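Dear Dr. H.,

I hope your travels went smoothly. While you were away I took the liberty of generating a structure for the chain from your last submission, since the lab meeting agenda had it listed for discussion. I wanted you to have the full record in hand beforehand rather than looking at slides cold. The sequence, exactly as received, is reproduced here:
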Amino acid sequence: MQYLGIDLSNTDANLLFVSDGREQKLSLRTELCRDKREDRWYIDAEAYEKALAGRGSMVQGLLAESERDGLLVAEDTEYRAVELLARFLKLARKQVLGDEKAEELRTVIVLPDYRLAFVRELAALLPQFGFPAERTRLVSREESFLAFLSAEPALLAAGEVGLFDLAEKSLCFYMAREKKEKGRSCLYAEQRKLRDAFTLRMLSTPQGERMADQVLTVSAERLLRNRHFASVILTGEGFNRMSWSEGFQRAICKGQRKLYQEKELFSRGAVEACRLSENSGIAPRLICAGPGGRADFASGETVRRRAGAGARRGGRITAHGGRQLSAAAPKTEKSCCSQSAPVRAARRRPSACRLAFCRSGRRRAVMSIAHSVSGMSAPFR
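The corresponding predicted structure, in token form, is as follows:
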């Protein structure tokens, strides 16, 4: 079986293609280039070659404009941004597949901001660009995070799991835990968008590195205080290089918390969501706090419930049987996440661990997660 996970942002798209145990990774800028002479579109290196040679016009901001239902201009022609985004996804899929034939390919696209109107419009357009509705899903990052953790049960067994996602002018914190709902196990997650975001250009100077480290250290101490976080994961472009964040890492590792790094967390979570959609009989029950969203396993139709006042009071929503866990929205509409079953169908092997040292000489465990998808550990840098 073939799986394709796509993690979208306004600047980058990370793709992970898995076929018969083999992996193909691809990271692209979320940009298109239109040929000046004909209606042809390019991405990645070919797009920059056309633009530098003066034979193409670059189009940027695809995701942000699509969420606003805006228009983008290329060669004096206006295009709907959501159509250009769907075209970009088609070209990105073609590039990551290469010579591989797409046979029963299942695709999950992860969105950083799950907005119902935008998701429905994109889901309606994708079949026109070669993404069959019955084998394509659009999910939130919360659901992708939970799907990722469902393949790493040892993390949740130890306690709550935190996740810091640092990107350009974006800093988000996710928390996940296992809990009981009426005698059944389920996985619960919520997201917080932090106001402490900064531009990654700060990391190009020593002074900027110190300032960024101080900002993240304060955020970590505030978010992790008085909570039983057994492990914390780092992801996002800002954590590709870790040497600048020693104070932040020390704040995380207090109280014997374990620190992990996973560069492709959301795309790997998308691949695991593909697997869960196939094996609904053993899939865990996933719950996302607030107005998150998901795509229904059977039809590919995107469904979502707005939590309204219930979300502001810390309410949560679930797609299990279309039943709402806190009063806020009509009971007839299904909403976020997955289906019921035992949380742990099978135990994976534990994560690979190595030891690192801070400048202060304090010893801490820094781990890189070993995935059941690839069987290999990503190096910690």
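Two observations you may find useful: The radius of gyration is 21 Å. Residues 291-381 have pLDDT under 50 and may be disordered.

With kind regards,
E. W.
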